[in-house]
């Protein structure tokens, strides 16, 4: 093998050993942690069993008989069995396995060490099974956690493996803290107080970019996007909506928020608006009129002349109106003609034919009525859109426009959302 390849291979092997070793270590640590937890639970449950059975001591009956026959109940085999029977609940597999493997050890404690080593966790889990360590110590030799047994990790974190024979003892710091002893404030936090034993880190104000010297907007070293540094007041929200050049389109209204803003689509009745709802319009859309500060739909059918053809009637819809045929009639170039005349010919009814731009008819209704009302396509192609349409000066094909507007709306909403998220993240 050429030396270069050898080098690469050996580096890879070392790397794999390193990663593999770390993984194996991690797994072992987790196992020990779990075993220690099981042991502590078992010991606790055993002690509870002792308290439970303590009452039986002078309970009379069988116990009395046993005391005479077998000696003192408090240290009797009978009591031990009673305790052990209930020490693990049936569904606790780990507990039952540990109990099974260590019944004799527990019996030894019961008969020999109950008085000289009353702490069962210490005697059983720490000294005998050697899977646990005293609180705030870790590793095979139960070393002290960094920062000492009293307040390991300065009280701002957890010592890896603490209380078990496993772990590295490294401090895992709580939010806002870092450093080997968790006594340094993370970016975005400031030192609220600090003395020899205690460090308190507190989050900077929301308006700060990363670091600060104290709490509140005046503590920021730099402002986050969407905020301006104002003398004596610190970082203040920029009201994007009140800027010289408004950030929203004319069919939207602007909503300011801390560090950001939102453009929200106006109500369908509004051409321009200052808020949600038809009562916040500045101008009404065509087909709507301002009545008592609210844009209300105009009932075009009250004045309409276009639908006044035989067997045709006018139907008002928000912002517009439809010319529809009576039941049994279909629309054609000549107005409404009996269905029977058009039957057999390839005619597909198009319910949106006489709809004004952007106004989708209620789907269920039109589906139902399509048959007898508006038609388009085939021979009816020649129908004059103009005659069925109110004179709005808008010429685009209805269906296309509807599609377009829906598409751009949803697109814009998505863009908005992601922009907002971006803003907030910043
Ligand atoms: C450090 O601060 C803590 C919390 O305020 C306090 O309890 C402790 O007595 C202080 N220690 C010293 C040495 O000043
Ligand atoms: C539409 O009308 C024109 C004349 O105005 C006629 O030549 C044409 O055949 C008609 N088309 C249909 C589909 O009826
Ligand atoms: C609508 O169409 C007519 C003729 O097709 C045209 O003269 C008019 O300018 C169009 N109006 C608009 C707003 O596009
Ligand atoms: C509407 O748009 C969809 C896809 O966005 C397209 O499949 C459909 O053909 C369009 N309909 C019309 C009438 O343009």
UniProtKB/TrEMBL annotation:
Q: Which domain of life is it from?
A: Eukaryota
Which cellular component, as a GO term, is one annotated location? Answer: membrane
Q: Which residues form the signal peptide?
A: 1-24
Topological type in the membrane: Multi-pass membrane protein
Q: Which residues form the EGF-like domain?
A: 141-183, 297-337
Q: What is its main location?
A: membrane
Cited PANTHER family: EGF-LIKE DOMAIN-CONTAINING PROTEIN, RE58433P
The record describes the protein's role as: Protein disulfide isomerase. Promotes the localization of acetylcholine receptors (AChRs) to the plasma membrane.
Designated name of the protein: protein disulfide-isomerase
Organism annotation = Patiria miniata
Question: From which lineage does this chain's organism come?
Answer: Eukaryota, Metazoa, Echinodermata, Eleutherozoa, Asterozoa
């Amino acid at each position: 093998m050429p030396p270069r390849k050898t080098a690469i291979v050996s580096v890879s092997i070392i790397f794999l050993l390193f990663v593999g070793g770390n993984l194996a270590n991690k797994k072992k640590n987790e196992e020990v942690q779990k075993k220690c937890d099981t042991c502590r639970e078992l010991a606790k449950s055993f002690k509870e069993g002792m308290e439970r059975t303590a009452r039986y001591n002078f309970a009379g009956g069988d116990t009395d008989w046993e005391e005479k026959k077998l000696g003192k109940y408090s240290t009797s085999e009978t009591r031990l069995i009673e305790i052990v029977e209930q020490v693990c609940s049936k569904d606790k597999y780990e507990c039952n396995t540990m109990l099974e493997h260590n019944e004799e050890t527990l019996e030894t404690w019961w008969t020999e060490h109950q008085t000289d080593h009353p702490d069962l966790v210490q005697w059983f889990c720490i000294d005998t099974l050697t899977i646990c360590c005293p609180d705030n110590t870790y590793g095979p030799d139960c070393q002290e956690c960094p920062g000492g047994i009293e307040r390991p990790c300065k009280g701002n974190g957890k010592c890896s493996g603490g209380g078990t024979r496993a772990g590295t003892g490294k401090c895992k710091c709580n939010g806002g803290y870092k450093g080997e002893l968790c006594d340094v404030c993370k970016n975005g936090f400031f030192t609220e107080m600090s003395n020899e034993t205690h460090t308190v880190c507190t989050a900077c104000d929301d308006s700060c970019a990363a670091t600060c010297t104290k709490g509140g907007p005046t503590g920021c070293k730099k402002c986050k996007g969407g905020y301006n540094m104002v003398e004596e007041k610190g970082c203040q929200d920029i009201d994007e909506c009140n800027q010289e050049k408004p950030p929203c389109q004319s069919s939207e209204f602007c909503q300011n928020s801390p560090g950001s803003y939102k453009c929200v689509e106006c109500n369908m009745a509004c051409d321009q608006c200052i808020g949600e709802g038809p009562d916040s319009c500045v101008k009404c859309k065509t087909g709507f009129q301002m009545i008592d500060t609210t844009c209300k739909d105009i009932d075009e059918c009250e004045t309409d002349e276009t639908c006044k053809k035989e067997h045709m009637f006018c139907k008002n819809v928000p912002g517009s109106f439809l010319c529809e045929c009576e039941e049994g009639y279909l629309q054609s170039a000549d107005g409404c003609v009996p269905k029977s005349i058009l039957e057999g010919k390839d005619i597909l009814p198009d319910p949106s034919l006489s709809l004004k731009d952007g106004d989708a008819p209620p789907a269920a209704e039109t589906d139902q009525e399509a048959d007898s009302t508006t038609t388009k396509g085939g021979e009816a192609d020649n129908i004059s859109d103009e005659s069925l349409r109110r004179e709005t000066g808008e010429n685009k094909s209805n269906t296309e426009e509807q599609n377009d507007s829906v598409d751009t709306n949803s697109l814009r909403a998505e863009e908005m959302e992601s922009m907002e998220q971006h803003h907030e993240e910043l």
